[in-house]
Specification:
The chain is α+β, with helices and mostly antiparallel strands and 155 residues long. It has helices at 14-25, 32-36, 44-51, 83-92, 127-130, 132-141, 143-153, and strands spanning 3-11, 58-64, 70-78, 97-104, 109-112, 115-118. The longest helix is centred in the first third of the chain and has 12 residues, at 14-25.
Length: 155
């Protein structure tokens, strides 16, 4: 599949973040998405509907801040971001705030939470400096730099 890169900032109480960190870093059948938005026995269509992606996260790692009130998380998902899973989780846990930045270069889109930009402009386009979503996603994933390197390598 085309892999979507995801960076997540979770803000909340220490006990919740310790639990989420443990889930993200464990190597088991139940991943983060199943833990926060359970679907039970795996079904592709249900996963896409409830999570926004067909599989649970892959290659997850995270780092807490010093007082364990924020957790920076990085992971990959298939084809797109798991927006629906985080919307569900936040609606059931009002003591947690989540910001999700994502970038899928193969299908040419990026976004923050549910605010998505598709058909990304070329790396020299001034839109990168004026559109807040593009600007933030570029800061997180170095999209423009990667575009420029790819153009130079394939010129």
């Amino acid at each position: 599949p085309n892999w979507c890169s995801n960076t997540l900032l979770i803000t909340g109480d220490t006990s919740t973040l310790v639990q989420l960190k443990s889930i993200i870093e464990q190597d088991s059948e139940e991943g983060l998405l199943e833990a926060i938005a359970p679907i039970g026995e795996y079904d592709r269509e249900t996963a896409i509907s409830k999570w926004g992606t067909k599989w649970d996260i892959s290659e997850g790692w995270c780092t807490p801040n010093e007082d364990y009130t924020e957790l920076d998380v990085y992971f990959q998902t298939a084809w797109g971001p798991p927006n629906e899973a985080f919307v569900t989780y936040m609606s059931e846990n009002d003591d947690v705030e989540i910001t999700l930045w994502y970038y899928e270069g193969g299908n040419d889109f990026c976004g923050i939470n549910e605010d998505e930009r598709g058909q990304l402009p070329g790396h020299q386009d001034p839109l990168w400096d004026t559109d807040d979503v593009l600007k933030e996603c570029d800061e997180v994933f170095s999209i423009r730099e990667n575009m420029e390197e790819w153009e130079e390598e394939n010129a």
